């Protein structure tokens, strides 16, 4: 069991610190540099989970098995069941698959996502009668793996990974987006769904001034959301608001991530992995500028604060007043936001990794 995001201030920063609605890990070390993490709760219960793992990338720890750093941001919706499940199972599945293949690759990441999706489906089937709403829980899933001089980024949903690159002789960092969002408010994503479901004219419709899949959800890819993937769950005791008027023969959403492999260069200084709540407030370049121009220690919390200042500004209110708003009500002003900043120190990329390290964002071990 894990504890939710909100807790009183805890001073020990070993596994992060909780200050009211903000959890943060100011600075830590991973295999190829340092990292900083932060989470802000906006919903009544925080629906985001995240993690950073450094060390062995397989179930075996012998020298001939891959080593590196894994970062995951899981932006849950309709509850936290799916995001919490992914935080406990995606990296575990990745390690098992890497152990079998003895490599880290795009196909390995896709298989890890698929295995996690199947595991969650099994859980939904087991809990269906006692906890039917688990069928409506889902999560966007963004994962990055640094290994052997390559950064793999796998994304299903609308979180985003942005690289901060500093060209030789330049003092300015440029932003390079490493992932694509799967949100139907993007025209190309709508076209993709129309192509996949040519006989379903209502697969994407406008509702509440936003494009939504079947009028319910904005993302087209996720882990979970079983009610839009398996028609057998489109019945009672699922809540009526999740039940469709017309059934479907094939999954409307899918869990397959888009995966890219980026060969790291000395100019690549850091990567920001963040849920869409951050990118709703800040542009890629604005976020990269903040990370580049301020000290590493506490930088994730600083970036989070910049996003909250922007959220307050949009509502023509003071940041100090925004901070007073309770979770739940606060969701009308900004989303839960989770971010991990992974610094890449080029002189460490070819060296042996540090001892294994693991941290979960926004939660503490019991």
TrEMBL record:
This is protein-serine/threonine phosphatase. Keywords: Hydrolase, Magnesium, Manganese, Metal-binding, Protein phosphatase. The keyword Manganese applies. The keyword Zinc does not apply. It catalyses: O-phospho-L-seryl-[protein] + H2O = L-seryl-[protein] + phosphate; O-phospho-L-threonyl-[protein] + H2O = L-threonyl-[protein] + phosphate. GO terms for molecular function: metal ion binding; protein serine/threonine phosphatase activity. GO terms for cellular component: membrane. It comes from Linum trigynum. Belongs to the PP2C family. PROSITE patterns: PPM_1, PPM_2. Its cofactor is Mg(2+); Mn(2+). InterPro entries: PP2C (IPR015655), PP2C_BS (IPR000222), PPM-type-like_dom_sf (IPR036457), PPM-type_phosphatase-like_dom (IPR001932). SMART domains: PP2Cc. It is an enzyme of class 3 (hydrolase). It holds the Pfam family PP2C.
